[in-house]
Design goal:
With about 800 residues, this protein is mostly beta strands. About 15% of the residues lie in helices and about 45% in strands.
Length: about 800
C-alpha cells in the first residue's frame, strides 16, 4: 500500500509540475574534489582555457579593488568547507551569499542557517552549479572603472574539469547586475593579492601556468584589465604543492604586508626571510616602503590564510600554542580592527581565505588621497587634498567631508574640507613646531549615508608625519651592573640614574627577575624506524606516552634529539602534548641533524602527568625518525622576593634625569650569592630594553647558618654556589660520617665523605666543577652521622 501511495504521489507531481524533492528530505552532496590537482587533472591541464573567449578590458581608468576595501558581502559555496559558526560570524559583519545548486539545496541551507544562529537578514543565495568550495580560487576579482562603475574581472581557473567553478564569476556578475570582463590568463585567487592602487603580487606559478605568454605580456594584461602597473611575481618560499601566496603572505593595507615567520631550523627559513626582505625593499603606492609584519608559524600554521571583511579580521586558528600570538600579531598590524579567531578543518595550504571570497561594495565611497608621511618641511600649514568618488551615484554631502588631525598624540581636532570643483576637496592642517608628530585621517559620506575614511579604519590607525625631522628620546643609565651585599636578615640599598639626552620625553618602566630553576632530565625511547609507519607514529604504533611523577610548575621545556629524514623532510611534523592538553610543535620540515629546541608553551603548567610525543607525515609514507631524545623540564624554585626598584615607571623630559632606588633584602635568604636582573624598557628606539645584572651577596651576621641535632651541627656556604661550597661539621663524639649530593630526581651526584671522623669541627670543600655535567638548579645534600641524618638544599648557579 505504501509503495502504491509513493507511485501515486510521483504521478501527481509529474502531472501538476511539482518537484518530487518536495516529498523527500534533501540529501546533501559530498565534497569529492581536493584543493590540489589529482593525477587525472594534471594529465588534462593542457585543456585548461582551451575554449575560453576573452572580452575587451574595462574602459577608462581601472582600479583593482583590494580585500581590505569596503565589502558588501562574502561568497561561500554549499556543500561547505567552513563551519556554520564561521558563517554565523561573517553574517554579523556583512551579507553571506551562498552558492547552491537548486531550490531544494537553498531550502535545506536556509533551515540549517536558521538553526545555527546565522543572521538571515544578511543571507542570500546564488543558484548556480559548482564543483568545489574554494570560492577564493575560482571566484571573481573586482575592479572600479570608467565613470564610477564596479565590475568583475574573470580569469581562467587553473583546474581542468571544473567548468562549473569556472562559470561562477559570470553568474556572480549577473546576480549583482554588474559588468563581466574576461581576461585570458590562467590563475587562482589564492595566488593573487593586490593593494588596490596598482601593486599586486603572485608567486611564479602564474608564469608556469601560462607558458604561451611572456612575462611582459602577463604584465601588460594585468595592467589593461586590473590597472596593475607593478606586478610583483616572486618565487614561492613554502615549497609546497599549491604555490599560493595566501599560504605565506597577505596585504593588510596599501603599505602593510604580513609574512609568515618560522624558526631557523625550518627547512624554508632562508626562503621565507628572503621574501620578507623583498617586500621591505619595495616602494608602495604611497611612495614609502612596505611595513612588514610577521606572524609566527613554526608548525606551518595557516595564520596568513585569513579573511578581512571591512573592520573585522577572521583568523583561522588550530588550537596551537601560537593562536594567541597570531591574534596579537594582527592586532598590532591592524589597530582598530576586530580580530576574531575561528576554528575549522584548516590545513597549512587550505584554510579560511581559500574557502571564502569578499564581494566588493557596489555603493562604496572611495577617497583618493596621497598621504603626507615620514618627515615634512616646517611650514605654516599642510594642504590635504582628496578626490571623493561615490559609486552609489549619490551626491557627496559636502558638509561631511572633513580632516581630523592630532598633534603629538593629543585629542583629534576637525577641519572641514572645501569643495574645489569636480571631485576635489582640500583643507589646511595648521603648522606645528619642529619635531611635532601630526596624525590625520579623512572622512566623507554621500547623501545616501555611505561613509568612507582614508585610511580605511580612520582614527585608530591614521596617517602620520613629522614636522621638520623626527625627534627621539635617548636613554642613558649610569651603571652596567650592581654588586652589593648584606648580612642575614638585613637590607642593602643602592641607586642608579636614568638620564634623557634626547629631544623629546623619555617614558620608562622597570621590572626585575630573581627566579632560580631546577632541571629534571628524562630520556625518551627512539621513535619508530622511518619505514615502520606512514602518517602518524602514535595512532599507528603508539609512540609514545611518557609519565612524569615529579611535581612542580614548568619554567621551561627543552628537547634534544637527532633527526633522520628522507628527501621529503618538509612533509614532517614533530609534536608534543602536555598533561593539560596543550599541544606544541617541536619542529616541522627540518633536515637531518641534531637539534635542541626550547618551548614556552607549557610554562606555568604542572609537569606531573602523562605526556605524549608523536611524528606525522603529510604525504603518508613516513620517512622520519627521532633518536637520542632527552627532555629537560626546568621547574621554578621560589625564593623570597629580595630585589625591588622604585619608581617602577616615569617620564623624563629632555636633558633631565631620575634616580632609581634599588633594594636588596636578605630577609629569609641563606648565606650565599644571589643573581637578579633589572630591566628598563623605554621609548628610545635604539635602546628599548636595557638589562642591569644584580649580584647580591648574603653573609653571616653572628655566625654561620647551622642545623643542630643532638649536639651535631652542619652548615654550608655560600648558597647559592657558583664553584666551591664549604661544609662545616661539628661532632660531639667520633662517628662514621657520610656526606652525599643528590639532584632533584634523587640521583646521587657525588660522595664527599665516607669515613670515620673524630669529635670536633671538620671542614669539607665541594668543588661543583668536579661534576662538570651538573647544570644550574636545586640540589640536596644528605649528612649521615652514626644513626642521625640531616638534609639541606643547595642552589647551584653556573
Amino acid at each position: 500500500m505504501k509503495r502504491n501511495i509513493g507511485i501515486l504521489l510521483l504521478i501527481v507531481s509529474m502531472v501538476i509540475g511539482i518537484s518530487p524533492n518536495l516529498f523527500s528530505q534533501h540529501k546533501p552532496r559530498e565534497n569529492r574534489l581536493t584543493h590540489h590537482m589529482s593525477a587525472e587533472e594534471k594529465a588534462r591541464f593542457h585543456t585548461v582555457g582551451k575554449d575560453y573567449v576573452a572580452t575587451n578590458p574595462p574602459p577608462g581608468e581601472v582600479r583593482n579593488i583590494a580585500e581590505f576595501d569596503k565589502m558588501e558581502g562574502v561568497l561561500v559555496r554549499y556543500p561547505f568547507g567552513i563551519s556554520y559558526e564561521v558563517i554565523a560570524a561573517m553574517s554579523e559583519e556583512t551579507v553571506v551569499t551562498t552558492i547552491v545548486e537548486n531550490q531544494a539545496e537553498q531550502d535545506f541551507v536556509t533551515a540549517q542557517y536558521q538553526s545555527h544562529s546565522v543572521n538571515m537578514d544578511n543571507a542570500n543565495f546564488l543558484i548556480a552549479p559548482s564543483d568545489s568550495y574554494w570560492t577564493r580560487d575560482y571566484g571573481p576579482w573586482y575592479v572600479a572603472y570608467g565613470d564610477a562603475e564596479i565590475g568583475i574581472i574573470d580569469f581562467i581557473y587553473n583546474r581542468p574539469d571544473r567548468e562549473d567553478d569556472n562559470a561562477v564569476p559570470p553568474a556572480v556578475a549577473n546576480f549583482l547586475g554588474i559588468e563581466w570582463f574576461g581576461m585570458d590568463l590562467i590563475s587562482a585567487g589564492g595566488n593573487y593579492m593586490t593593494d588596490g592602487l596598482g601593486n599586486s603580487s603572485s608567486s611564479e606559478l602564474v608564469w608556469d601556468e601560462n607558458p604561451t605568454l611572456s612575462q611582459t605580456e602577463i604584465d601588460e594584461m594585468v595592467d589593461d584589465y586590473l590597472g596593475v602597473n607593478n606586478y610583483m611575481v616572486i618565487p614561492d618560499p613554502n615549497n609546497t604543492y599549491i604555490d599560493h601566496i595566501d599560504c605565506w603572505g597577505k596585504f593588510l593595507d596599501v603599505n602593510k604586508v604580513l609574512i609568515r615567520e618560522v624558526p631557523e631550523s625550518h627547512a624554508q627559513y632562508d626562503e621565507i626571510e628572503a621574501t620578507a626582505a623583498f617586500y621591505e625593499a619595495q616602494t608602495t603606492a604611497w611612495d614609502d616602503n612596505y611595513e612588514v609584519f610577521r606572524v609566527w608559524t613554526p608548525g606551518n600554521e595557516p595564520y596568513t590564510n585569513s579573511l578581512i571583511l571591512n573592520n573585522r579580521v577572521f583568523v583561522p586558528i588550530t588550537g596551537s600554542q601560537w593562536d594567541d600570538e597570531a591574534i596579537e600579531a594582527y592586532q598590532e598590524a591592524m589597530p582598530g580592527y576586530d580580530v576574531v579567531g575561528l576554528t575549522g578543518s584548516w590545513q597549512s595550504t587550505d584554510a579560511l581565505h581559500c574557502r571564502t571570497k569578499g564581494i566588493a561594495d557596489r555603493n562604496t565611497l572611495f577617497i583618493k588621497h596621497m598621504p603626507l608621511l615620514a618627515e615634512q618641511p616646517e611650514l605654516s600649514g599642510y594642504e590635504i587634498e582628496a578626490e571623493i568618488i561615490a559609486y552609489s551615484g549619490q551626491s557627496i554631502d559636502n558638509n561631511s567631508v572633513k580632516v581630523f588631525y592630532r598633534v603629538d598624540g593629543g585629542a583629534y581636532e576637525e577641519i572641514g574640507m572645501d569643495f574645489q570643483g569636480g571631485k576635489l576637496y582640500s583643507a589646511i592642517i595648521p603648522g606645528q613646531v619642529n619635531g611635532s608628530q601630526i596624525d590625520y585621517y579623512i572622512e566623507a559620506s554621500d547623501i545616501g549615508g555611505n561613509l568612507g575614511n582614508h585610511p580605511f579604519i580612520g582614527a585608530p590607525d591614521p596617517h602620520g608625519f613629522f614636522v621638520g625631522e623626527q625627534l627621539f628620546a635617548c636613554i642613558n643609565v649610569d651603571i652596567t651592573e650592581i654588586n652589593t651585599s648584606a648580612s642575614l636578615n638585613n637590607t642593602s640599598n643602592e641607586e642608579f640614574v636614568i638620564a634623557n639626552t634626547g629631544q623629546i620625553d623619555l617614558n620608562y618602566s622597570i621590572s626585575w627577575n630573581t627566579s632560580v630553576s631546577e632541571d629534571f632530565i628524562y630520556d625518551v625511547e627512539n621513535s619508530p624506524a622511518q619505514t615502520a609507519w606512514e602518517s602518524n607514529t602514535y595512532d599507528e604504533l603508539g609512540w609514545t606516552d611518557m609519565n612524569i611523577t615529579d611535581e612542580g610548575e614548568i619554567a621551561n621545556w627543552k628537547i634534544d634529539y637527532t633527526w633522520d629524514t628522507d628527501q621529503y623532510g618538509y612533509e614532517s611534523v614533530f609534536l608534543v602534548e602536555s598533561p593539560a592538553g596543550t599541544q606544541a610543535t617541536i619542529a616541522t620540515g627540518v633536515e637531518g641533524g641534531t637539534y635542541s629546541v626550547s618551548l614556552d608553551a607549557f610554562n606555568g603548567e604542572e609537569m606531573q602527568g602523562d605526556w605524549k610525543l608523536w611524528i606525522t607525515d603529510d604525504y603518508g609514507d613516513g620517512g622520519h625518525q627521532a633518536t637520542d631524545i632527552a627532555i629537560t623540564i626546568s621547574k621554578s624554585v621560589e625564593l623570597p622576593d629580595w630585589l625591588s626598584a622604585e619608581p617602577v615607571s616615569g617620564t623624563i623630559s629632555s636633558n633631565n634625569d631620575n634616580v632609581i632606588e634599588v633594594s636588596c633584602d636578605a630577609t629569609g635568604l641563606g648565606i650565599g650569592l644571589y643573581e637578579g636582573i633589572i630591566t628598563v624598557v623605554s621609548n628610545d628606539p635604539d635602546n628599548p630594553n636595557i638589562e642591569i645584572p644584580v649580584h647580591f651577596t648574603v653573609s653571616a651576621a653572628t655566625g654561620l647558618e647551622t642545623i643542630h641535632s643532638k649536639g651535631i651541627k652542619v652548615s654550608n656556604y655560600p648558597n647559592p654556589v657558583h664553584n666551591v661550597m664549604n661544609f662545616n661539621i661539628i661532632l660531639p663524639k667520633q662517628e662514621f660520617v657520610v656526606l652525599e649530593i643528590y639532584n632533584g630526581n634523587g640521583q646521587k651526584m657525588a660522595t664527599l665523605i665516607n669515613e670515620t671522623l673524630t669529635a670536633g669541627e671538620h671542614s669539607i670543600k665541594w668543588n661543583s666543577f668536579d661534576n662538570p655535567d651538573l647544570k644550574s638548579g636545586v640540589y640536596f645534600y644528605k649528612l649521615t652521622a652514626g644513626k642521625d641524618s640531616f638534609d639541606g638544599k643547595i642552589i647551584l648557579m653556573r
